[in-house]
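Here is a typical sample entry:
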Amino acid sequence: MNRSRLKQFQPKPWALYALLAISAFSKPVLAELSTGETAANLRSEARDYEYGNGTPRDPEKAVQLYCEASRLGDMEAQYNLGWMYANGRGIARDDATAAYFFAMAAQQGDALSQRLLRQVGEPISPQPACLNVPDEHDRNGQDIVALASPEQRKVMDLVLKLAPEYGVYPRLVMAIIRAESNFNPAAVSPKNAQGLMQLIPETAERFNVRKPFDPEQNIRGGLSYLRWLLAYFKGDVSLVAAA
């Protein structure tokens, strides 16, 4: 493989902590610090899918991401989702669901949502399913899988297959892969960390990864390293993430 053609990928340290907070593995203080930033990034990604900014337009994916950001309390996402339902923007028009999200934003003081709520009426529909708090005991990360693209799901299927062999929760592995490489098997960082789990050459060699850009080999190497770190730090995921 010609590494000079590989896209340079700069991991974002905040993303790892944010995703771990969503995954219900990190300490409560990490969740408290990262929730707002996580919601804002979900909303930004949703907007890209809504308008087709740098990615094919996908209203259904936008709805999923807006709803997750809304669950985390993002007022702008709540308004945007209400607007999509009220106007049938790429999805079926649903005034009752629109009212639900406008009401959420209105309760936070959004004046425009308050005016629109008077037009569509008070919410009478049950709470949308996407607003339910994820089951903290869902170690397979089904809510993460639900938001994945077809290419990302191929990686997730590998994680679901391999993680149990190493005694590591799939949800944790998915969160790390998303933060480190955004599910790009060809990702390379400026420090030459490679592949899905961003293994540096020394770590890859240590865990017998001969082809770091091969998804299965990279995940197996990353799982071996994660298992070692979890044992070393006695299960403290925040320290594992920092390492």
The chain has two domains: 3-17+134-242, 34-131. Confidence is low (pLDDT under 50) at residues 1-34. The first helix runs from residue 13 to 22. The two ends are 28 Å apart (CA to CA).
